[in-house]
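Risk register update: the risk that structure generation would not scale has been downgraded. Supporting records follow, first protein first.
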Amino acid sequence: MKSNRLARHALAALLTLSVAAPAIAQSDKMAPIAIPAQPNAIALNTGPLPGAKNKESWHSQYDSVFARNVTQATLTPFLPDPAKATGTAVIVAPGGGFRTLSMQNEGWDVAKALADRGIAAFVLKYRLNQTPADMGEFEKSMTAMFSAVARPTTRPSPEEALKGLAPQIADSRAAFALVRQRAGEWKVDPNRIGMVGFSAGAMLTVATVLDGQAKPAFIGDIYGPLQPMTVPADAPPMFAAIAADDPLFAGKGFGLIDGWMAAKKPVEFHLYGQGGHGFGMYPKKTTSTGWFDAFYRWMVMEGFQTPKAN
């Protein structure tokens, strides 16, 4: 299918993320683990991934855990102490090149930190492209891809590339719909539901804006592609962060940021001197670890942390 080929081409660098270490524990190997208990995960009922044959499996790497071959999407709530709750909510989209999901470093740990600040957080485990069921074969396929993929000199526009993300966009839509449906129960203001994504999850976050149906109140783009795109008329405020030494997306200009500014949409951009790709919530000695506090302060500045009036 042409659209899927376009998406694969545009995401070529992203697909290496499972073997591109976050600049720590470079020698860590993937090790299969049992699927962790996820008692609070809620099925989004977006259906099984079309054509999927391999079942969901998990592995550990870099002192974190990853999911792959996800065929059924879920959303896991991390709710704040009611005494601290502000009514703001954030859907968290981990990255992993649409082949894996960094569930701990870019999912659960982010959600816990948000909940600690009074923000209801929801980790989106979206459906993924299929990979070999055997861990050894999976590692080989990722290593081969990492070795073979040179960053293309030309890529399709984000609008073209996102045509291949229909299952993931459907999962994102369903996540927003569920949070709005249960907003009263979860003490969430339906008009203050945002989304933050990491790498591939950042691409899904931007795709959710372009799709035009879920309408996030604000978005966070953490080390995602920054190439130019057509900014929708109703584009939400955006926070973006990337490290200057990111091997995948740094050094290609800041077209996404320029577009938001040209459209006169609120945007804040942090370019950290070091941090590599995939830093997420890892404790590192680089200023990139400050992204979360900056993101929180930005939400406060934009008025998204004003407690909901009773």
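Supporting record for the second protein:
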Amino acid sequence: MTIVVNGERREVPDSLTVAGLLRDLGVKPEFVAVEVNRDLVPRARHDRTPLSPDDVLEVVTLVGGGSPQSPEIEPIVIGTHSFRSRLLVGTGKYTTLELMRECLDASGAEVVTVAVRRERLFDREGRNLLDSLDFGRYTILPNTAGCFNAEDALRTARLGRELLSGLGNAGADWVKLEVLADTRTLLPDPVATLEATRVLVGEGFQVLCYTSDDPIMARRLKEAGAASVMPAGSPIGSGQGVLNPNNIRIILEDLKRDDPSYPVIIDAGVGTASDVSQAMELGCDGVLLNTGIAGARDPLRMAHAMRLAVKAGYLAARAGRIPRKLYATASSPIDGVIGQAS
């Protein structure tokens, strides 16, 4: 005889019961619910419910809900290092080490920066910052924050390498280089930065260079061997976001022209999630930030927001925005509107 199962006609033996059909289908009765001709057949009556020609059955089960899995972000490669997360975060300015740990976790970051300075290693209670970091989870990126000449930056980088080598962390072979010009603007000293980059590269460091948004300087740092150029979106801690997107576009164009995978990472000035998204939409490979999370009214919420913003900006940059137009373009067809003259 012929019956209909889940919308498909099926030939089955005469005198078949619901239980027999499920056995033939290889379906576990406890995993399904069955209707026959729109009437629910309880599981206890499966073996007592005969099927007749032209019966219509619905056999349903439970499936995972929600939307399809969203596209994933490709790993970022910096020198010999590769990471799934394109958000790099700092460890300073948190009110407690416990809050710092929670925010690092919420951000999804795999790289955290630490300043190699005595007064930054301990909190008010004398606890060591490094005791609060999971070295199996995070790659530590030592930075030369607070250095105002090339010599101090070189000494600090070497100390950081020595410290992390002793801890067995993968971050021992790289450094985030900052050589600042003055305490008021905290802008980088271009001459000293370039000088220190050349020396550190010669000593085997993978150097991530904090620099201004000057395209020529960015080009020189890459030529000097920097593993990544990190232009400031705006002054450190200012929260002004990306002030000069055109310069960032030029930097990206210059540094990636013959090397599309070369990592350009926005560093400094990020104030909120939209700043992160903008940087990623411009085509940057990642964002490094600290104050944007630690200085927020609710740092933990902001850490989650920054994590999502990186992904949103990354995907949007690759999806391609619609063109900007002066006039409106209707999203619904104009033809066939009620009342329209023929």
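Residues 76-319 form a domain with the TIM Barrel fold (CATH 3.20.20.70). On this basis the risk owner (M.S.) recommends closing the item.
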